[in-house]
Structure formats: C-alpha cells, structure tokens
C-alpha cells in the first residue's frame, strides 16, 4: 500500500470503525479541538482526547530524528496489514522498521513510528466512545473556549 500518510490513517479508521473512508473523514475531521489539523485548548470529550494523543504521537516522531524533516511525517508511506475490517474483530498490524526491505523506502524507522501512531489513534477510535457529541455543539464549545483564552 503506497499512499500519503494522512490517507492511510483514514483507511485505518475506516477499517476499525465500520465506516467508509468518506464517512470517517466527515465524522472526525474538524471534530472538537484536536481532530483534524492543528488544535489547542482542552479536549472536549473522549473522542477529542484520542485525537490529542494522536497529535502528540506525531509531535514526538517529528522531534525524534527518525524522519528527515518534521513535515515528512505527513507524507511518509508505511506498510500495515488490516484484517476483518468493518467488523468487531478488526485488527491492524504495522510492520516494524526491521521488516522493511531495501526497496520499501529510505526511512523505515520513520515509517514504522508513523504507522504505530496512526494504528494507536485508529484503535482508540474503535472503542465505543460514549461521550461523542455532535460537531455543531462542539464547534460552539470550541469557539467559546477560544474566546476565553
């Protein structure tokens, strides 16, 4: 699988949440303070907290020296296996850096680390998140929170 990293994360979410790729993006992109690009403030619920942890994982990889540049984390492609997608038994497995071959890319440590971030983020969203509320309500809360900061 060779795709832009962001698209691969969407594929992982789609696999473990029983949503198609388009619905996954519609449900999570722009949700709360941290789902989507950027973010600030306190997570508004458990789903938003998953997105914050995912953002923090990206940040750790960016500053780890595993990738040639910080922005590389958004474009590196990685290898993973998905099984039983769109079922309750959906599982993801990321290849380790040692499992990448010579022709699989120049930065296997970066690819493996990014895959792990995305896998953990997708799997966190796989669990039933009872606190998830509508994007409209969250948008209002985010706007109010931003005004007070």
Automatic annotation (TrEMBL):
It comes from the Eukaryota. It is found in: Secreted. Keywords: Calcium, Disulfide bond, Hydrolase, Lipid metabolism, Metal-binding, Secreted. GO terms for biological process: arachidonate secretion; lipid catabolic process; phospholipid metabolic process. Its main location: secreted. The keyword Secreted applies. GO terms for cellular component: extracellular region. SUPFAM superfamilies: Phospholipase A2, PLA2 (SSF48619). The active site is at 54, 118. Its cofactor is Ca(2+). Belongs to the phospholipase A2 family. This is Phospholipase A2. It comes from Stichopus japonicus (Sea cucumber).
């Amino acid at each position: 699988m060779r795709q832009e990293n962001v698209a691969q994360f969407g594929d992982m979410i789609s696999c473990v949440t029983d949503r198609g790729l388009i619905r996954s993006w519609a449900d999570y992109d722009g949700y709360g303070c941290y789902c989507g690009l950027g973010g600030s403030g306190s997570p508004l619920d458990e789903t938003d907290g998953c997105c914050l942890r995912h953002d923090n994982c990206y940040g750790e990889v960016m500053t780890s020296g595993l990738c040639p540049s910080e922005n590389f984390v958004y474009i590196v492609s990685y290898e993973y296996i998905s099984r039983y997608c769109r079922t309750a038994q959906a599982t993801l497995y990321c290849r380790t850096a040692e499992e990448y071959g010579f022709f699989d890319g120049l930065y296997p440590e970066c690819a493996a680390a990014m895959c792990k971030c995305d896998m953990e983020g997708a799997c966190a969203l796989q669990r039933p998140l009872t606190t998830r509320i509508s994007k409209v309500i969250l948008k209002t809360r985010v706007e109010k929170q931003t005004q007070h900061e």
